[in-house]
Design a protein that fits this description.
2 copies of one chain form a homodimer.
Chain A: H1 24-27, E1 33-34, H2 67-78, E2 89-92, H3 95-106, E3 112-116, H4 121-129, E4 133-137, H5 142-147, E5 154-157, H6 171-184, E6 187-191, E7 216-221, E8 233-237, H7 242-253, H8 258-268, H9 273-299, E9 303-304, E10 313-318, H10 326-335, E11 338-339, E12 341-342, E13 356-360, H11 366-390
Parallel strand pairs in A: 1-11, 3-4, 3-5, 5-6, 6-7
Antiparallel strand pairs in A: 2-8, 7-8, 9-10, 10-13, 12-13
Helix pairs in contact in A: 3-4, 3-7, 9-11
Chain lengths: 391, 391
């Protein structure tokens, strides 16, 4: 009988598991060396020892976020040339929530969403869930984007220390992309969680600051510079979009955790915070150097990469002699207690093997880097040799 | 040019503002007496003075929630006759999130969702956003529900100290509703945030405990017994639904705040917690008595109600001599610094005036109750008189 067949919403057929979710149990092994996630180093987290819980903070609060925090976010963004009022700020339960809210705001089944290829996999997952039709673009070929004749839709970009590639857009690329969005009427959605993790001098001006007009959304996160467990981020957007996004936020979780809002506000206004952030960046700069060193030692014969100017990831392209599906490689290295993120999931159309992989360098210590990367290099060489023998 | 017209997702046309959101600014006046929200009393919140922040708690965590908390939730639910494994528990960023996730799981445009009439307004908002076709039902007329021939879809119910009516389903009503859902193949979604706020002996056994089968979801919240600012709740569901809901949760916000999870876990395992909860219920029982007293004094000529056996609300039905649109009444009483929740928003089809209103009794003190309810009574009488004169 039809009534006894469980019928889920049609979007659920597009609900894919994350490659990492599927191996979570394996990742929990104490001996596992994981380059897979984007986990900050625990030693960079702030100390909340002097946290004084105010009971009023535990009450329901405003959907848009606590006023002092919204005010502070608006002030700090002015330093980045993004001039907005506190009323354009929406505090988020982490920036993943911003992706969910913006997808709800913008995406019907078939809505065109321009994305870099590769791009942040969890954004692809959400856009896909809502039925997006992807239009991949490349910052190296913005002419193609300028020339296309797709319906305007939305453009999602992660221009500063890109996840997964680590790339940082130049100033002229930022200006060009903003102009394309404005000219074509695309809603520009800029995701900027890594901007404060800068190891070299680069342009980090938000693309949205060049996008005069009524359709832009900029978001960032406190996960990398404070702590992910607080689940706190924010978005700011052109004035007319905020009321919709605030209602969607209310429908999603009423408002964000108020302890987190207070803790982050305390940290942001603490004179010692700048010193802590400086130390945090130095910690990651050193880790990046170490990681690059062991990559050179163990993987320079099998892969190419550029050391990133910021962020938390190295993006490796396997040389053509190693045409490996990195999803299969992962299954192999997990047995050797080494995890990484296969590249395939970062592509809008990720069926084909792409021979690329993402390595996080912020979580592991030097001993783990040395051992894990040596293991990975050996695995790639033997995996490729085995494939050749089978063929 | 078409490209310059901003095109939002079609669901946004169904995105309604909450009647409370629209008056938030007014509610912030210090002199305002608000019976409008469902805010717990601040004095009932636990004391986190001995909270010792473990740095590892600040790292990213599992989407489903921290294991010790999931384990504990499963154990406690067994005491309510809901026997599940910890793997069937999904920790939520407040139970509003459960509504969002279940809507994503179940609702396409046109999916039939059976709802009580009235029912929780924020559930209506979310289901409506995803395009639900509402099938209103009444616990007093379950025969009608049993006899209908709608496609199975989903049934949403808030059986224990119902929001907004305060009603608590009897054991036989619970069993009957479970059987109807199973027989008809409906997914049963039971929302149970008030169960611990019981002022009389009533049956509170989850309806889901009677729903043998593969399609039920039960959710509750820590907002009423701990603190809303922590934004923490949970759902448990039939085994096959959990993986979908966990992926949807991951896409929505990765995982819930880990400080909150730890704080709630500490409280739940603290031997003093039972005493605190007992005191909390006593506080609300006294408030309910006081509120009923002032209702009798100031509103017995204009309205009827039953004192609720639990929860946070009185539901008033205006007598037929007072055929008032309570949305218009609210605009009037706000000028007098008294807020309440108009009844219209709780009905699946809320265009018509229903002459009913919801009053929260947990937040205000006795002086505010006395003054606020006297003001409300006067307002209803004068508003009705004015209407009569105009007509």
């Amino acid at each position: 009988v039809t009534k006894n067949k469980l019928k889920l919403a049609s979007r659920i057929s597009r609900l894919k598991a994350s490659p990492i979710r599927d191996i979570l149990k394996v990742l929990e092994r104490p001996e596992m060396i994981s380059f897979a996630g984007g986990l900050p180093a625990v030693e960079t987290f702030p100390d909340f020892a002097n946290f004084n819980s105010l009971k009023q903070t535990l009450q329901y609060g405003p959907t848009e976020g606590d006023e002092p925090l919204r005010q502070l976010i608006a002030e700090r963004l002015a330093d980045q040339n993004l001039h907005i009022s506190p009323q354009q700020v929406l505090v988020l339960s982490g920036s993943q929530q911003g992706i969910d809210l913006v997808a709800k705001l913008m995406i019907d089944s078939g809505t065109v969403v321009a994305v870099e290829n590769p791009t942040y996999l969890a954004a692809l997952q959400v856009f896909n869930l809502f039925g997006a039709a992807f239009e991949p673009f490349s910052v190296a070929q913005l002419d193609n984007l300028a020339a296309d004749d797709h319906p305007p839709g939305m453009l999602y970009v992660n221009p500063t220390f890109h996840n997964p590639t680590g790339y940082c857009y130049t100033e002229s690329e930022r200006q060009r992309l903003a102009k394309i969005c404005v000219d074509k009427g695309k809603v520009l959605f800029e995701d900027d969680p890594y901007r404060d993790l800068a190891y070299s001098e680069t342009c980090r001006t938000p693309i949205c600051s060049y996008a005069e007009g009524d359709r832009w959304i900029y978001q960032s996160s406190f996960s990398k510079t404070f702590a992910p467990g607080l689940r706190l981020g924010y978005l700011v957007c052109s004035e007319q979009l905020l009321p919709y996004l605030a209602r969607l936020k209310q429908a999603a979780d009423l408002h964000s955790n108020r302890l987190s809002q207070q803790l982050v506000y305390q940290q942001l206004t603490d004179p010692a915070n700048e010193r802590r952030l400086h130390k945090l960046v130095e910690t990651y700069r050193i880790k990046r150097e170490l990681f690059n060193h062991y990559l050179e030692r163990h993987l320079s014969d099998v892969a190419e990469w550029e050391a990133p100017d910021g962020g938390l990831f190295f993006w490796l392209r396997l040389k053509s002699e190693y045409p490996i599906d990195t999803r299969e490689l992962l299954a192999h290295t997990l047995d050797l207690n080494v995890a990484f993120m296969p590249g395939e999931a970062f592509f809008a159309n990720n069926e084909a093997a792409v021979g690329q992989l993402r390595l996080n360098f912020s979580l592991t210590n030097e001993r783990q880097m040395a051992h894990g990367l040596a293991t990975l290099g050996t695995a790639i060489r033997s995996f490729s040799k085995r494939n050749a023998e089978v063929a």
